[in-house]
Design goal:
Layout: H1 2-22, E1 42-46, E2 52-59, E3 66-71, E4 76-79, E5 91-97, E6 104-108, E7 120-128, E8 133-140
Parallel strand pairs: 1-7
Antiparallel strand pairs: 1-4, 2-3, 2-5, 5-6, 7-8
Length: 142
């Protein structure tokens, strides 16, 4: 009987935490890492179990921003204010993984768009280092 109550309690706690995380009520991430970064920040997250070489460049060329590094398995790399732009300027980032295949391109608004559009943070999530699989997303910056 105690075992059932114990397992029931664990299940209820896990369900609450999962629901809170999905609704944005609980902070997700690595301990003391702040979920908000300034606009123009680049976050590279390697969710795979192998290290990956990553090269990111910005265009047009007036945005002199580039990154060449190795991101370890399970690690997250943050480059605050990687790109500084004027409000409304669209910046294209191109990520090359393992020096193979075509670059993965992504457009975002580092300083926000016209009107109420907030500054954006570019996030590259590496899903499979061996196959050079990754996705870009934009999140709200501060």
């Amino acid at each position: 009987m105690r075992r059932r109550r114990y397992l029931g309690t664990i299940g209820a706690v896990l369900e609450s935490v999962s629901s809170a995380g999905c609704m944005g009520l609980a902070p997700l991430g690595h301990g003391n890492e702040s979920p908000e970064y300034p606009g123009g920040t680049l976050v590279v997250e390697n969710t795979d179990q192998a290290s990956v070489d990553v090269s990111v460049t910005a265009s047009p060329e007036e945005y002199d921003a580039s990154l060449d590094t190795t991101v370890g398995d399970g690690e997250t790399l943050v480059r605050r204010e990687f790109v500084t732009a004027q409000r409304g300027d669209v910046v294209t980032l191109a990520a090359q993984l393992r020096e193979e295949g075509a670059p993965i391109e992504f457009q975002f608004l580092p300083a926000g768009g016209d009107g109420d559009s907030p500054p954006e943070v570019a996030r590259l999530t590496v899903k499979n280092a061996v196959e050079a699989s990754a996705t870009w997303t934009a999140t709200k910056g501060n």
